[in-house]
Amino acid sequence: MSELDAGEARWRDAVAGVLKGASLEDTLTTFTPDGMRLQPVYPRRTGTGPIPGRAPATPWTIVQRIDHPQASDANVLALEDLEGGAGGLALVTGHSPYSRGFGVSVPLAGDLDRLLDKIERKAIVLRLEAGAHTLDLARLLGEIPGGTVHYGYDPVGQLAATGALPPAWPSTVSVLAGHRQNGTVVSADGRVFNEAGATPGLELACVLAAGLAYLRMLEATGLRLEEARHCIGFTLAADQNVFATIAKFRALRLAWRQIEEACDLAPAPIHIHAETAWRMMSRLDPATNILRNGLATAAAGLGGADSIATLPFTSANGLPDAHARRIARNCQHVLISEANLHRISDPAAGSGGLEAMTDGLCEAAWAQLQAIEREHGIVKALQSGWIQAEIDRLRPSIGTIIGANKYRLAEELPVSVLRPLVESTVQPSAPALLRRRDPLEFETAP
User: How far apart are CA 360 and CA 30, in angstroms?
Assistant: First the structure.
C-alpha cells in the first residue's frame, strides 16, 4: 500500500468512527446543480498536465469598468484606475446589457476624445461593451491609433437580455472582423445566463453554443476557420464558489478544444475574460461583497482567466465612487503581487477533486450543447423558450448570503455612491431572460 493509500485509509477509519455506522458515501457525498456527484475525498490525478491557457507566470490583466454616464467624469475615474495599476478598461455604454442602469455616453467623436483624454491607448487593453452600438464605437476608436481592443460584440447575449437580435448582425460581425485591432471581435458571454440563474454547466453550454454560432457565421462571411476562431473571445461570471468557478474556467478550455478538434483545427489557447458575478452582489451590508469578490477573483485567476473585472463592492447600491473602485483594484493587486496566484500554471492540474469537477462540468456542458444543437442552435433555442425552460428546471436554490439572509445587520450603515441604482423588477417580454441578483428577495423583505 502506498503512502497516499495509507493516508486515505487512516482518514476513512477516523471518519467512520465519527459517523457511528452511517454510510460515509451517503453522508458526505453531495450533488452539484448540474447533477454531478461529488465524493468526500479523491486521490491525486496522475498522468495529467496543466491545461494550456494564460502564458506561464504571467499575471492576468486587471480590468476596470468605465460606466459613468458623463465622458469627462468617466475619464477622471479611468485615469485614477490606470494610475492605480489597472491594465485594461471596459467601456460600458448605456446600450450594453450589462450597463445596469448606467453606462458612459459617447455618441460623438468629441465625447470619445474626452473619455480617452490623457490615456495612453497603446499601453492598455480596451474592452467594448456597447451592445448593438458596438460598430459605431469601434469606428470612432478606429480613428484613434491604439493597442489591443476586444470589441465584445455579442448578438446572442443581446437576444437573451432584450428579446431581440441586433439588426443585420452578421454583416456587423463581418465589418468588425475586417477592422480587428489585435484583440477579439465577438464575445461568447455567459454573464446573461448566469444572471438568469443558469447552473455552471448550462452557462458553459450556452457560451459554447454562442461561440459555435459565431464560428459558423464568420466562416460564412469568407474567413477561414483558422482565422475565424481567433476572432472569438469568451466571458464568464466568477462567483464565491471557488472550486466550481475554477472548474468552470478549466472546463471551458477543454470543451472548446473538443470543438476545435471536430473542426480539424489544432487546439490553440482562447482568451477568457472574467467578471465577478452580479448575481451574488448584495445591497445590504455591502462590505460583505468584498469577501465574495475576493473569492471569485481568486478562483477566476486560478482557473486561468486572461483578464478579470472585479465589481466594486457598492455596485448593487449605485454607481461606485473612487473608494469602491480602488478596493476592487487592490483586491486583484493583493492576489497577484502578494499571493502570487499567477505564478503557477493551472494549479488545479492533478488535483483529484478539481479534475473530477472539471471533467464533470465539461461532460454536463457538452450534453447541454448537444441538446441546444438539436434545437437548431442557440438563437432558435432562445427564441423558442427552450433555454428559459432549462434554466427553470435546473435552477439551484439560493443558499446562504452573508449580510442578506444570514447575519443581517440590525441597522444598515450609510453607503457612499455617485448615483443611486434603481433596479427594475418587471418581467421582460419573451424570449428575454429575467435577470436579477440572488439577494434581491431578501432586500425587499420586511
Answer: 13
* pLDDT of the residue at 423: 86
Grid cell 461583497 — which residue? 289
Query: Which cell goes with 218?
Result: 464568420
Number of alpha carbons in the 13 Å side-chain half-sphere of residue 264:
2
C-alpha distances (whole Å) from 435 to each of 100, 193, 264, 417, 424 are: 11, 8, 37, 23, 10
Return d(Cα 231, Cα 211) in angstroms, integer.
10
CA distance 332 to 327: 9
User: Cβ distance 366 to 258 under 8 Å?
Assistant: yes
CA distances from 226 to 22, 253, 269 (A): 55, 17, 13
AA identity, residue 120: E
How many other C-beta atoms are found inside a 10 Å radius of the C-beta of residue 441? 13
Task: Give domain limits for the chain.
Answer: 61-359
Could you write out the DSSP letters of every residue in 91-145? EEBTTSTT-TT--B---SHHHHHHHTTT--GGGSEEEEE-GGGHHHHHHHHHTS-
Sequence-ordered alpha helix ranges (H) in 188-224: 191-195, 200-220
8 Å CB contact between 322 and 84: no
CA distances to 14, 290, 315, 319, 408 from 420, rounded to whole Å, are 53, 19, 9, 6, 21
Give per-residue pLDDT as tens, 319-360. 999 999 999 999 999 999 999 999 999 999 999 999 999 999
Q: Are 272 and 249 in contact (CB under 8 A)?
A: yes
Query: Could you tell me the three cell numbers for 255?
Result: 470543451
Lookup result for grid cell 418581467: 427
Minimum mean pLDDT range among 99-108, 307-316, 411-420: 99-108
pLDDT tens track for 181-225: 889 999 999 999 999 999 999 999 999 999 999 999 999 999 999
Counted residue by residue, the chain has a size of 446
Using the predicted structure, report yes or no on whether residue 101 has a pLDDT greater than 70.
yes
* Annotation: CATH topology of 61-359: TIM Barrel (3.20.20)
Three-class SS state of 263:
coil
Beta bridge partners of residue 186, listed in sequence order: 153, 232
| pLDDT at position 110 over 90 | no
**Looking at per-residue confidence, does 174 or 147 come out higher?**
174
pLDDT tens track for 64-92: 999 999 999 999 999 999 999 999 999 99
- The alpha carbon of residue 415 and the mean position of all alpha carbons in its chain are separated, in whole angstroms, by 26
Full-prediction pTM beyond 0.85? yes
